[in-house]
């Protein structure tokens, strides 16, 4: 493995397993959408927000110029990606969410 990303904010203080090959790691924490209580619509929104956030972070990650970044710079970039939010939802997408 080259990279390991942890995402569960509930487990941020837990010790992660040892990964073979000494991969670069970063915490890309998110609120656990499974913790949302209440109406199904609110739960759906929480899962959709988590998906959109991870999708955005993965898109940024896959565009990194890996060959030109040293380990320190790469670690900085990975940590910064973990702080990014999802892109703003378009008006038509938001409208579709309300109808669901």
Give a brief rundown of this model.
This protein is of the alpha+beta class and about 100 residues long. Helix content is about 45%, strand content about 15%. The protein has one domain.
Explain what the structure shows:
The chain has one domain (3-90). Helix content is 43%, strand content 13%. The chain contains 3 helices and 2 strands, in the order ββααα. The protein has helices at residues 40-62, 71-81, 91-99, and strands at residues 3-8, 24-30. A two-stranded parallel ribbon has the order 1-2. The N and C termini lie far apart (39 Å). Mean pLDDT is 85; it is low at 95-100.
Helices and strands, with pairings:
Layout: E1 3-8, E2 24-30, H1 40-62, H2 71-81, H3 91-99
Parallel strand pairs: 1-2
Helix coverage percent:
40-55%
Q: Name the beta content range.
A: 5-15%
Strand order of the largest sheet: 1-2
Number of strands: 2
Task: Considering the chains and any ligands shown, give keywords for the structure.
alpha+beta, 3 helices, 43% helix, disordered C terminus, 100 residues
């Amino acid at each position: 493995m080259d990279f390991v990303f942890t995402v569960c904010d509930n487990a941020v203080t837990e010790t992660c397993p040892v990964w073979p090959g000494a991969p670069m790691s970063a915490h890309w924490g998110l609120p656990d959408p499974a913790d949302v209580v209440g109406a199904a619509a609110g739960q759906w929104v929480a899962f959709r927000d988590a998906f959109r956030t991870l999708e955005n972070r993965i898109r940024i990650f896959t565009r990194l110029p890996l060959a030109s970044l040293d380990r320190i710079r790469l670690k900085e970039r990975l940590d910064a990606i973990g702080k990014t939010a999802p892109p703003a939802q378009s008006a038509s997408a938001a409208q579709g969410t309300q109808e669901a």
